[in-house]
Amino acid sequence: MTAQEIPRAEWLRFLDEFSRAHEGWLVTIEERDPRGLARELARDVPLSGISAELHGEEAHEIAVIAGPRDAEWTHRIADPARLWINRTPEGAQEGIETESAGGVRTIIRFRSAVLPETVDGMLQP
């Protein structure tokens, strides 16, 4: 796996494009505290979208919306400090990862890491 950090100035555009490209993909969402203790928040739920709320140039929170259409829920990441895209050695996106100012990491992983263009038009939200 390789991780590429997304510059803060690109978060809104990146998350909008990421959400459109991966809407409906099954994700597992995990949170890790600064000591490395992990807890799974959701497993194999459809992704609706991920967005950032900004105040000026600072990101106030990132919201991850997931779950079946009739039972969607939102996981809010307060005071995000960093954002990465994780890729396989072949370049397929595995998911994204955030780190809050307090050191909590949220990992959003796809069930299957594939290049989005190989499934274009195959998923129906």
Explain this structure to me?
The protein has 125 residues and is mainly beta. The chain has a single domain (2-114), classed as Protein Yojf, Chain: A, CATH 2.70.180. It has one helix at 11-22, and strands spanning 2-5, 26-32, 38-55, 58-66, 73-78, 80-87, 93-100, 105-110. Strands 1-6-7-8-2-3-4-5 form an eight-stranded antiparallel sheet. 17% of the residues are buried.
* Sheet with the most strands: spatial strand order: 1-6-7-8-2-3-4-5
Question: Which second-level CATH architecture applies?
Answer: Distorted Sandwich
The CATH topology turns out to be Protein Yojf, Chain: A
- N-to-C SSE string, H for helix and E for strand: EHEEEEEEE
> Which value, in Å, is the CA radius of gyration?
14 Å
Number of helical regions: 1
Number of domains in the coordinates? Answer: 1
Structural class: mainly beta
CATH class: Mainly Beta
> What's the total count of β strands?
8
Task: Please report which band the strand proportion falls in: under 5%, 5-15%, 15-25%, 25-35%, 35-45% or over 45%.
Answer: over 45%
Task: Please give the share of residues in helix.
Answer: under 10%
First and last CA, distance: 28 Å
Chain-averaged pLDDT: 86
Largest sheet features: 8 strands, antiparallel
Shape call? globular
Low-confidence stretches: 121-125
